[in-house]
Specification:
The structure holds two protein chains of two kinds.
Chain A lengths: L3 H32 L9
Chain B lengths: L21 H24 L13 H27 L5 H32 L8 H20 L5 H15 L2 H6 L1 H4 L20 H53 L1
């Protein structure tokens, strides 16, 4: 494949950024969930 | 003989429910499946372009991320409008707006980086002060500013009002970005799929992979916004509770004197 470096870099950056943001989001969610009782979580 | 440590005993272990639900788990699983398909099809199955060659494979992540960034900023504006103009001024709308803007900024950054890589292969330059690129960078910086305003000191209501006004103004940039290739001479190609004449010159599998990318990124967007706005609700509740506790402590101090 021609220009494979650029093509793979764009896929790795895209998927990597989304995964990183998802992990940070879930970690923040876990930290915040400890501060509030379940009765205040309307989605439960 | 087994021993139960105090940390792991059922009496002391408290189960905390996070922001996930059955719906978010289904959306997340679907998003992963679609994204796996997009990567396989985009990198292996789809043919190279007649003009652009293999570099066209970047399109399957660049175009959907740009579209989702637009969608995210439009959702931010709509949710902000609901907050500002509705009678109840529900902070739930503000949290959706904030969550959507955060996700939109991530997708806009992805758009700029993948576009830069694609530009290097197509135009020979990572960056050109071209109308489409410049307006996109301006849109990105505007929403970074929006997120910065959300972090300013003040009450949760003040945050919602300030950022809501900015969101309603910032969304006006999106038509400017989208039609920049029509208004001015641009290196960037014009719309291929959303051609006003309805004439789509693209191979069937390429088009299907591109649409799969849009669907996959949309599922990722929904998943992220659901989790993020729930986390914001928990943070807001924790802040409110902290303020309530501080007021209560002050009152008790006054009674004790």
């Amino acid at each position: 494949m021609q220009n494979a470096g650029f093509i793979f870099a764009s896929y790795i950056l895209t998927i990597g950024s989304i995964l990183l943001f998802a992990v940070v989001t879930l970690r923040r969610a876990r930290e915040s969930a400890k501060l509030v009782e379940d009765k205040h979580k309307p989605w439960i | 003989m087994s021993q139960t440590s105090p940390q792991t005993s059922p009496q002391t272990r408290q189960k905390v429910s996070n922001t996930g639900t059955q719906a978010t788990r289904v959306i997340g699983a679907l998003a992963i499946l679609v994204m796996i398909w997009v990567v396989i099809s985009g990198l292996v199955l789809t043919p190279a372009d007649v003009v652009q060659g293999e570099s066209v494979r970047i399109m399957y992540v660049h175009v959907p991320s740009a579209w989702i960034a637009y969608v995210a900023f439009i959702v931010t504006a709509i949710a902000s409008a609901f907050f500002i103009f509705s009678k109840r001024h529900s902070l739930g709308f503000d949290r959706v707006a904030g969550a959507s803007a955060e996700v939109g900024v991530i997708f806009m950054a992805i758009t700029l980086i993948t576009g830069s890589l694609w530009g290097r292969l197509t135009w020979g330059e990572f960056w050109q002060w071209d109308p489409r690129l410049t307006t996109t960078a301006f849109l990105f910086v505007t929403y970074i500013g929006y997120l910065a305003v959300r972090r300013l000191d003040g009450s949760i209501e003040q945050r919602a009002k300030r950022s809501g006004v900015i969101a309603l103004l910032a969304v006006l940039e999106i038509p400017l970005v989208h039609f920049s290739v029509v208004f001015w001479r641009s290196l960037h190609q014009r719309a291929t799929v959303l051609d006003p004449n309805g004439d789509v010159k693209m191979d069937g599998l390429m088009l299907f992979t591109l649409f799969s990318g849009v669907i996959g990124f949309t599922l990722v967007f929904i998943w992220l916004v659901l989790h993020r706005q729930r986390t914001m609700l928990l943070s807001d509740l924790a802040i409110e509770r902290g303020i309530d506790n501080a007021i209560l402590e002050r009152k008790n101090e006054g009674v004790g004197r």
